[in-house]
Amino acid sequence: MAVLYKKILLPLDGSEFAAEALPHAEEMARTSGAKLVLFQVVVDTPDYVVAQMEGVGITTVAHDESKQNQALDTAQSYLDDLVASLRHRQIDVAADIGGGDPATAIVEYAQRQAVDLIVMSTHGRTGLARWAYGSVAHKVLQAAPCAVLVVRPKGFA
Description:
This protein has one domain: Rossmann fold, CATH 3.40.50. The protein is 41% helix and 25% strand. It has six helices and seven strands. The strands form two sheets. The protein has a five-stranded parallel β-sheet, with helices on both faces. Strands 3-4 form a two-stranded antiparallel ribbon. The model is unreliable at 49-53 and 128-133 (pLDDT under 50).
């Protein structure tokens, strides 16, 4: 029987909801012998309005590099801990960090890295929250170059 999956991508954002997909991805990697790649997107967000020029309608936005670096360090530490734990459990695992829009970054990473399967959780937003924030899982489902397994968090019907 041919191996279906050689590389499995697990997008994480540091939340408990996202981590609920980890046991599924780990088991699939274990049973198929696939490499599991943990991937976190750090969104580059400016620190909002710094100055607004009177009557001109121009708003200047500042980027706080120290906050961006702190977010990157937090993501790296989170992924390093997970990698160590998974390696201890004999899983072939790697981790990477991307930037930009989460759905776009996940899809582009999957394309560049020849990922066979994306395993991810949905945050379970419904109604207005889903409309306002969009659904990263839905966007990934629509654009992914490979199969996608979406895990619904516990407590969401």
